Amino acid sequence: GESVGLHLPTLSVQEGDNSIINCAYSNSASDYFIWYKQESGKGPQFIIDIRSNMDKRQGQRVTVLLNKTVKHLSLQIAATQPGDSAVYFCAETQGGKLIFGQGTELSVKP
Amino acid sequence: NAGVTQTPKFRVLKTGQSMTLLCAQDMNHEYMYWYRQDPGMGLRLIHYSVGEGTTAKGEVPDGYNVSRLKKQNFLLGLESAAPSQTSVYFCASSYGGKRDEQYFGPGTRLTVT
Lengths: 110, 113
Prior knowledge:
The complex is a heterodimer of chains A (110) and B (113). In chain A, 0% of the residues lie in helices and 56% in strands. Chain A has 110 residues and is mostly beta strands. In chain A, the strands form two sheets. In chain A, strands 2, 4, 5, 9, 10 and 11 form a six-stranded mixed sheet that branches. Chain A has a five-stranded antiparallel sheet with strand order 1-3-8-7-6, with no helix packed on it. Chain A is globular and about 40 Å long. In chain B, a hairpin with a 5-residue loop joins strand 7 and strand 8. Chain B starts with a strand and ends with a strand. Chain B contains no helices and eleven strands. The chains are: A mainly beta (110), B mainly beta (113). At the A-B interface, strand 4, strand 5, strand 9 and strand 10 of A face strand 5, strand 9 and strand 10 of B.
């Protein structure tokens, strides 16, 4: 069946450190993956995406890595800032539908 | 552009009452979606639409109905609300096809007593 899950429900990092949020997926047919950030009281906000024909994609301070061999996805945030505190969801998409993981709460300590 | 908007932002219903949640998008997106989000869980797809006049069931469709009479609007209806439908509801839209990035609205917090 289809499922997307996260290894850790919470992550606490020091301001300025790098953060790594992990995600496992089970459907090897998934061809598109997205990371969303959700701040308290708001809707999810797109961060970065990656297609299955890539293994790495970089944005501004964020990098997504895709390892299809072990069906693993990670989000790396460089120089984590207090404004990065939020819940991060990975999602896989097939046929226009998104399947979300449970989310990881990132807490940034000053 | 306003993006994706939802009304109302908050609502309290009594068991058995009905209501409609409205979602509007001004990005000319083909696809629209309704999700619910419960504590400790990710978003779950209720219903979706791949174009004006079309609707389809998602993961948790029971107790909900939807309509997409206009391309820019997607309505979610609860005919007889139940406490189990207490949740935060999010609408989203996307271009569809190969462009799967979904844009989300701010959410509607619904409480059913």
